[in-house]
Amino acid sequence: MTRLAADGGAVVVATASAVLLLTGALFCLLGALGLLRFPDTASRLHASSKAQTLGVLLSLLGAALRVPLPYAGLLLLVALFQLFTVPVAGQVVGRVAYRTGAVDRSTLVVDELAGRLGPPDPEAAAEPDDTGNGSADEPEDGAGGGRRRES
Amino acid sequence: MNAVAVAALALLSAAAVLVLVRLVRGPRSLDRIVAVEVLVTLLVAGACVAIAVWEYTTFVPVLVVLALLGFIGAMTAARLIEEREELR
């Protein structure tokens, strides 16, 4: 039976696979810990989309080393699919979090979405430009089309 | 290899318990969506361990379906609660 790592010794492949599986499980645990411990939705997305993805990619690689070649290809396809979908899902969830006011905007250093995607509640939308004063290298006006006009 | 499976599955189970705590607690629906997505990902990782150690190659198509399902579920739920105020 042809395998992904056919020419290596069986012991080497088994050891590499075991290390990959354990490291992947450890990263999954760290991601879950971050999901539990981080304070708001946006920071929880960091834990879920980065640590978790690395963990599952390592696990998939560890499994792909030990199965016959067609299955290994399918597993690598799943890994590729994770790489495509996780950023998209994270972006959508983060955007919804911002729009529904789940992001504590006083903790943001740069708020590039201030005038464009603000939450609908009036007190946060009333002063969209006071977050830009700290790093005032870009004009933060609500109309995105007028940004290039002055410079 | 069995010890590796036990250790990896133990780590993943601990992770699943932590995620379940967040799923129950999560103050907003978005936190619960993220938690469910992570739970599906943990399932994928656990199935990987089973595939690698016990050669359960019948699980491989299940992985494809799970990866698709987690993505579509998270996207759909997020878009839904964006539209409906009472679900937040």
Automatic annotation (TrEMBL), chain A:
Record bears the keyword Transmembrane: yes
Sorted UniProt keywords: Membrane, Transmembrane, Transmembrane helix
Q: What name does UniProt use for this protein?
A: Multisubunit sodium/proton antiporter, MrpG subunit
Transmembrane stretches in the record are 12-35, 71-90
Keyword Repressor present in the record's keywords: the answer is: no
Where do the record's region annotations for Disordered lie?
Answer: 114-151
One short Pfam family name for this protein? PhaG_MnhG_YufB
Q: Which GO terms describe its molecular function?
A: sodium:proton antiporter activity
Question: What does the similarity note say?
Answer: Belongs to the CPA3 antiporters (TC 2.A.63) subunit G family.
Q: Which domain of life is it from?
A: Bacteria
From TrEMBL, chain B:
- Please give the superkingdom of this protein's source: Bacteria
UniProt keywords (A-Z) are: Cell membrane, Membrane, Transmembrane, Transmembrane helix, Transport
Location of the protein in the cell? Cell membrane
Transmembrane stretches, by residue range? 6-24, 33-54, 60-81
Membrane topology listed for this record: Multi-pass membrane protein
Per its record, what are the GO molecular function terms? Answer: sodium:proton antiporter activity
Q: Which residue windows are coiled coil?
A: none
* First-listed, main subcellular location of the protein, grouped into a coarse class: membrane
Q: Under the cellular component aspect of Gene Ontology, which terms does the record hold?
A: plasma membrane
**Similarity annotation:** Belongs to the CPA3 antiporters (TC 2.A.63) subunit F family.
Protein name per the record: Multisubunit sodium/proton antiporter, MrpF subunit
> Which species does this protein come from?
Streptomyces pini
